[in-house]
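Entry 14. Two folds queued back to back today. First construct below, sequence then structure tokens.
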Amino acid sequence: MRKVYLLFLVLLLLSISNVLQAQNRTVSGTVLDEKSQPLPGVTVQVKGSSAATVTDVNGKYAIKVTNLQNVVIGVSFVGYTYQSKTLKVGEKNADFNLVPITNNLDEVVVVGYGTQKKSTLTGSVATISPKDVQDIPGLNFLGTLVGQTPNLSVSENARPGQPTSSVTIRNPVTLNSNGGITTPLFIIDDVQRSEADFDLLDASEIESISILKDAEAAIYGVNGANGAIIVRTKKGRAGAPKISFSSQFGTSNAMQLPKYLTGAEMAKWSNAYTQTSVMSPTGALTGDSLKADGYDVLNNKLNTGWYTPDELAYFSNPANNQNWLKNYFHAADVEHENLNVSGGTDKATYFISGNFTNQNSNFSGLENYKWGLRANVETKPAKGLTIGVNLSFDYSYAKEFWMKYPSESLNNDVLILGEHLPWMPYSINGNPVYSIGNSSVANTIDLVNFPLLQSSNNFEQQPDYVTNFLAHVDYEIPGIKGLSAGFSFNDNINTAFSSQYGTAFTYYTYSGLGDNDHIPGGTIGTAKPISNGDDVTFSPDLVKSYQLDAKLNYQHSFGKNNISALALYEQTGNSGDGVVTSVGSPIIGALPNDNFATGAQTVNQANSIVYEYAFESFVQRLNYDYDGTYLLQLTGREDGTTYFAPGKRWGGFGQVSAGWVISNEPFFKAAAPWVDQLKVRGDWGLLGTSSVNKSAYEYFQQYNIGQGSSGGAVFAEGSRGNGITAAALPNPDATWDHKFETDYGVDAAFLKNRLAVTADYYWTHAYDMLAATSAATPLTVGNTAPVENYGSVNNFGTEVTITWRDHINQDWSYNITAFYNWSDDKDILVPQAAGIIGTAQDRDGKSDDGGVFGYESLGLIRTQAQANAIIASRAAEAGGASNVKIFGLVPAPGMINYADLDHNGIIGPSSTNAYADEKYLSNKANNHNGVGFNYGITYKSLSISVVTGLSWGGTGQLGSYDYGTYYSAHGDLQENRTALWNEGYWTPQTPNAKLPAPYYYADYSVTSNFWFINSFSWNISQANISYVIPGNWIKHVGLASARLFTQCTNVAYLVNPYPESYRAPGSAVNVYPQERTITLGINASF
């Protein structure tokens, strides 16, 4: 009986087990992207259940679900539209083909201290996908954002190792010349960071990029008036470890080096200069005029500045001509690598990345590189509790040549090589010579012997170390659905160890060869030592900052009412300390260290860096929407800072914005079913700007310590000692600038979201702007006026973005984005000198860009008859023919004639008005209209994308470096001139030439419309070709995905308005040329 019972029990248990097994099933499938490539790391979840998993490297997943009822399997992945499938009882397979988010309606956008759905945004917020910039190599991350969105102006610095020149959003204005700031706020993971730190970012570690353009940045209060650029770095995702890497190599070289005259051309130009210089004041050839051999016709005396026929023949020989800039400016190697590892479980995730970028200078012997590490770890030790740590370390290094005179910069390196005479060697018989062949010149750019400087290891270098630690704790408070608390602390340490090493050189002179001693060579002269600083200088700096945040978040829905709220307390602090120390007389050939210097040591306390300041803030934000149709956002922030005096330290800022999604209305859906979204929005806010910068602590009386004008007695020159004098007057009432911002916008999508349009009009009123009023302060005050909250400026503009995305068939797809932006401003109240109030230069009530101010050209004086007629027409007003002058010169052939606006017969400043004959010559100096065309096309696995840009509306003009500067200290002409002069210049034999006579520098070097050119600009800034290797090709080597690509930046300028195309449109003659970078690379994961 017992055996029967046991057998019955076993059979019962087996039957129960079979029933239980029948109640569950395992659902499996594969998740692919839009190119049918496997997507690893995709979250797969059973709707209404906690059951979840992620796809493996092959995009496959398996998950247990109930078999007693239908289930919904949902898949989600960043950048792709959420998808779900309903499986009936017994069904065990669900495959998905995810498509990228194209309409952006459901896209989650990062804003200040949080995220919002793009469909419910009420402010002007642009987003840039990291994928669009991931292939662009470079030492500065901000430089990769060029052309990605309207009214984000990124002016690239072509010099490797140098920071981005300028970054602005909607062209803000500052009146504070003492440290005014127009750059936006830079936010990384909700922490305010410096622009330098932002440039160290690598695209491979970035999850999202948002641009706050309007009062949406009011949540940052005093620092938000110039907008904000917000980056979120990547986090780990649950799943098996995913490893991805990218490697690219290439070269970087000038798009175009400036063109200069050949040796023979320059010598002839110089002869024309010399010939004109000895002509009569009327410009006629006289007995002092020179013959072809350089001898004057009266005394038969050789002019020492003349290039004789034998010298011209020597200079005409190509073997005796060198393009020095081209000889020393070479293509530079570019390298970029990154490696990321991510993964984790439901309880803990991690993301670890490393990157390295090397972009050397185009001059041999210089280095520029950076590398970085990041580790982002999050754990969930308890229900509702998340603890995270984000640690990063970045190192950058830049090395340049060191020139004490005229001061080192890569711009000067380019200029001294370009202006160096083609026939003048840097050494003769192995002996370094003066680059201008003139030992009387001191401390000018022409004194530099570039190859000697390059080989001497005289350098300036700066290694920077940036360590950033961010920890955060977030907790979902039980009992109150949607309520959470968070705390974060960020600590940043930036250490720089700048150093300079300059020695002494020995230059030689030679007597010269040829009939007039202009051919290099001859008898060696006296050796002369030249000091290039002759010291070793160290400048260690330590900059520290911290940010502490404590916040409460609430998010809940009541029927169709959706509400979210934020309350946050923030505290930030910054401090810096540094010193400059140097030791003289380094031993040449020894290590560049103060241990190998024999001179005196000095510690320059006056140049040391010591500062400290702090902010304290209280932030509130409330968001409400009814059924995603009626939208409202309220923001408030109170900021306090130690910048200002007690009683002036606190200020309130805030924002109100609203929106109406018309396309959600039933009546609209019925009337316009082809409209997928139509939203109108408005934004109004009060913000501040941190243009205080160097004007901090203006409420303190500051002092100068020194001698003479720097402080102390001004008498007894030989024996006076140091003293103290008061600096500018203090201002205990100084506070920050204020700015009232408005924005009115429309967001629309049509034709199944293939067409998207965004349009904005903005208007801002800045007031209480910190400005120096010294120009309007009379001398009787006896001191420099303080910086005051004085100025007021309006800024306004429009921007429109239109995007079309579509596919032709299964293999072909394309996208086109066009955007237009225009902006301008109006000065309401700005500091001005009393002498210009009421004149054409008075800016009150006018745009800050009133055009180019200068002299109105009436064309070249080509003949003596024309010169005589000008003198006769102005003689009465000038009080006699002898008084008629153009910039102190008697009107003569070869000069530019200008309009005599004050009718006194004299062109130039008068005794009572420095601008008597000047006026605004154009409506605008700068281009205020901009258009971008970004387009891409994909065929199966092959993709091509291009970024182009156009601008117009301003005034192009040539400047002093275009037609050549003149240094009177030389006593002769020693710098080569640009090929602009090949347009033809006036001589007695060529009276109809385009350009003036070379001699009349005082006449043609003034700002005038004679040198105007077209300002229209059209360029291709980026081009990318990539190919996704099919999965069945790479699965055998263990790769989940692989992509080959080639990237080109600064592809081409399609319009060049410069005569003879002697320079590139994007690079002035005296700056480092714009670089074209071409790289090949691979991106893969496994």
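Second construct, same run, same settings:
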Amino acid sequence: MRKKGFISSITEYFIDSPLTPIVIIATLILGVMAVLNTPSEEEPQIVVPMIDIFVEMPGATAEEIENRVVYPMEKLLWEIPGVEYVYSTAMNGRALTVVRFYVGEDVEDSLVKTYDKLYSHLDWIPPGCSHPLLKPRSIDDVPIVVLTFWGKGYDALTLRQIAKKVEQEVKRIPGISETFIKGGLRREVRVELDPTKVYALGLDPLDVLKTISSQNQARITGTFRENNYQFQVRLNNFISDLKDLENTVVATVAGKPVFLKDVANISLTSEEPENYVFFVPGPAASQKQIKAQTGELYPAVSLAIAKRKGENATKLAEKVLHKVEILKGYVIPHDLNITVTRNYGETAKEKTDELLKHLFIAISSVAILIALFLGFRASLVVMVAVPVTLAITLAIYWLFGYTLNRVTLFALIFCIGILVDDPIVDVENIVRHLRLPENRGKSFRDIIVGAVNEVRAPLILATFTVIAAIAPMGFVRGLMGPYMRPMPVGATAAMLLSMIVAFIITPWTAKKILSKKAHGEEKETLFTRYYRWMMEHLIRSPFWRWSFLLLVGFLFVLSCSLIYFKIVRVKMLPFDNKSEFQVIVDMPEGTALEKTAKVAQSLGQVLEKEPYVTDYQIYVGTSAPFNFNGLVRHYYLRSGDNIADIQVNLLPKHERDLQSHDIAKRVREKLRPVAEKYGATITVAEIPPGPPVLQTLVAEVYGSNYEEQIKLARKVKEIFARTPGVVDVDWYMTEPHTEWRLKVDTVKATLAGISPEKIIEVLETAIKGKVAGLFHDAKASEDIYIKVHFPVSQRSSLPDLESIKIRGENGRLVSLAEIATWEEAIVPNPIYHKNLRPVIYVVGDMAGKEESPIYGIMKINKLLKELKAPNGEEIKIYYTKQPFSEKEWAIKWDGEWHVTYEVFRDMGLAFGVCVLLIYILIVAWFKSYTVPLVLLAPIPLSLIGILPAHALTGSFFTATSMIGFIAGAGIVVRNSIILADFIEMRLKEGLPLEKAVIEAGVVRFRPMLLTAAAVVVGSFVILFDPIFNGLALSLMAGEVASTLFSRMVVPVLYYLEHRIKTEGRLVL
């Protein structure tokens, strides 16, 4: 019997204390409050401050932008503490730089540091360059709800006006952050000048523009006093009526005014389309209550709504939809359709409800299991401990600012099998003590205290052993760190609480629930007798002993070979089963908007044959509302006539047989021939299961000459394209395309009194159109611009442009053809930088059997050997860092590989730390350097179950599999500690070594088997989740293997270790 200690005193106090039931009730209430008040969302919040910095330098080439803008700005940004990456793109006339800070850096602090650094060094800005515009981005900017407005008879102008009014109403809901509208047309006052009539007045387009702008004025000019009263003097000449604009005097002829309406066609209409948005019902539209024919194309407008940081996505989404229902009938016409094309609040609620149900199933399953092993009353004792522990764990999540999401809830389910260990060990030992003959005559209270006291010390050590295994995983860095951190945080808290509950609440509950008539020696079961028979042979027979150890070693090597032979494949995370994906379409540069729209519609027709598609939206010339994937990849910056996004929405996962990844793969194969037909490049962008990256496969091409880099990158792209399993191949470079450049004859222009600046302004007015000011309609929901330009028919060819006339300082009109000539030239390529180094990205995705980037990289590396650098040397391959020298020709792998490397590197380090901590704890407890090695030996044996289980189910060995393996290591060692402690107790009682080892295994086998079964049963509900499937497999198969093998390995090794130590020689 162990000496009475502090923990024993606590147990004795609470076993009779009236405070104990109050503690139970209070913790349960606290847990309920935590569930009700903790914000819920589908994915964990990952704080990665990203700041987009825009700088313009009109007219400058990409190379000049690189040298004058990008390099100086990058150097400043690289000095900021906390910056991890600086990405830059130098383009003609502008630069975009993205500064990304380390995960976990404060968003506001990062913005202040960036703003301070740039604006305290404004002397780096060259003449003609704008000040930097900073736009911070974070996960809270991702819209949680997207409403798409569409309907028969509604045009883009009307749809946008309705959506704008709805946006104003939705914006009033507390907790709403950014909202924006995609698609539709704004109202515009279009002033289409008649060139002939304008020129006849001796004017050019710029003169008319300035006249309108000067007329559209209003201002308070001062005050005056009269009769002791002060009056304001206001000039009010704002243009708020078309007649006012039409009657604007632009010139006088023979003393008579010439009005604007005499030289221009003026109309209040919609702006010229710069993008198109369409809504298309899919084959499964009726199951989403969409009443429209499949494939019918409707003009549409999408309203995207984001939430503030810390807000509950589920509740906020419900408020938005409720507000929309209220608006129907007076803001929203009855015959207008509003389809919810994104609702992350609903998916978060579905996931939360599903996981809470799984949590209940796991608890109930464990309760049934314990009832079968120890009886109904014993199961009730354990089932009081579990909700109390979970309730406090939920409260800890709440207090530390975590949200209820798939990871935090999976962490709780993951904990079920672990946290029942302490109560199970307590209850099983109490039940065993009740049946011991020597306890007859003792009080029920003393038996319980004695039983708990017996396992107290090893239980504490075993609990800290499991914590030592799990806690280091909280220090995983990179994007996966905060994504997975709720698991070690929750599991560590749950284990500590479970231990406290086992000493405070479990004894009290046992005293109230367990039967006092449980005395009587328990007969050994058939399974126990078989175990005793087996152990006797292993301990007493060297042949049996060493044959068994060799068999275990062989099975371990055989299991590990499954990875080498690719029977089990490694991947960061498996694919999730979402209800959406995107098709990213890029046409060649220079493609007209209408042509891009036609191609996107042709691609959409493929989707109309997919039975699980409820609807899809086509965004042409603009991006779709972005998700977290689009945030990291900067899809929200996509714009231009040659780009399109197709947002594809599927039936909920419970209503389809195929997972979204399988659907996306099938769709990709069908879309590819259509894309190739039109020369389009497509990417099927799925929602990643974890933190998103630029692309699955990313090859960064480095070198000393950018033009040669482009040539090398093109060859790398070709290798990507011919590598089996590599799909969606693209590169961050434009194909050569032409532009027309205007070369001004400065001598002729100067003689005519015309400056290049004047030419630019006239051409911008005539061709693109310039805004002369606002049309002042006070009731308008959006600004209405007065835009001046030539009719499309007068600006559609080079002869049209050459005929544009500019008025010189002497008043004479000079045609453009007289002072300038045209030349056709190739548009310079954009120049990309990463961390101050010029780079070109070649990207691709993986499809087929080997969907992990590791295997794609291995295949591509073999083909890269055939390439030579421009200087004739071999191209070096880097995996974890950029090449050191700028003169070095190299390829660095990034994308999912980099995150995979970071995760498995940090988890490997965490596992090493875990083993070291466990070793130190065991050394401190057993005061031996060799016993810990015996107890740690079973850790790798769990792989005998884990790897074959992954092979049989066809699952990837993922980061969650690794978590299961590491957590399982803690459980294995925990049970080994309790077993070894029992052996030591029996040795101190005078039992011979052989009998003590066998007896300890027999006595402790049932609780070990029970805890292993609890882990298996508790983890079973996770088995069918696509992401955490690996975690479940590792826990379940690892526990089965470790129970079958290590429960025999540990006694055998302990027996050998003890004999070697006592006899001083190697023992067979």
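Quick look at the second one. The longest strand covers residues 639-650. The chain has a mean pLDDT of 90.
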